[in-house]
Amino acid sequence: MRYQISGKQIDIGEALQSHVKTELGEVVDKYMQRPTDATVTFSKNAHEFICEATVHLSTGLTASAKGHATEIYAAFDSCREKMDKQLRRHKRRLKDHHRDRVEPVEFEAAGLYVLASDENDESGEVADGAPMIVAEMETKVPTLSVGEAVMQMELSHAPLLVFRNEKHGGVNVVHRREDGNIGWIDPRNSK
Length: 191
Prior knowledge:
Layout: E1 2-7, H1 14-31, E2 35-45, E3 48-57, E4 62-69, H2 72-96, E5 107-115, E6 133-144, H3 146-155, E7 160-165, E8 171-176, E9 182-185
Parallel strand pairs: 1-2, 6-7
Antiparallel strand pairs: 2-3, 3-4, 5-6, 7-8, 8-9
Helix pairs in contact: 1-2
């Protein structure tokens, strides 16, 4: 597994890097057989250290966790415990579904646009009535089942996930509702 360990305006020593590789490696190897890479970032906010970790799995899923503490090793340990809990739940769900994905998740390229908000820019409207595009980027849309999409959304702590439904190939969205439940938007079933 490849590791990228860095600090935002913090010097990360060799001892901390080896500790992160050892501990995070054990957690990931316990639950997942083929992790591809991990990114761990340390930062400091006033008196508190923050550790953010993201692990990319060979199935295409991504797990992320964040920990806070007054000491840098304790912040990492908090983050590692959250990652352990997420990966344990993910593995349990996979077993419950009795489904092992043999092939990696397929991704399709899609355009991602950032539009100017009305608050920041009062002249955000152009002559034809369309909002002003601030940035154009490329993102990837995975092909997943609905259950896998919900798992991916929860693992990455995202408020929503756009995915291509592997049953019929249509674009779907899963999102966290205000009442705490998960919503699923499938335009194909709107008839």
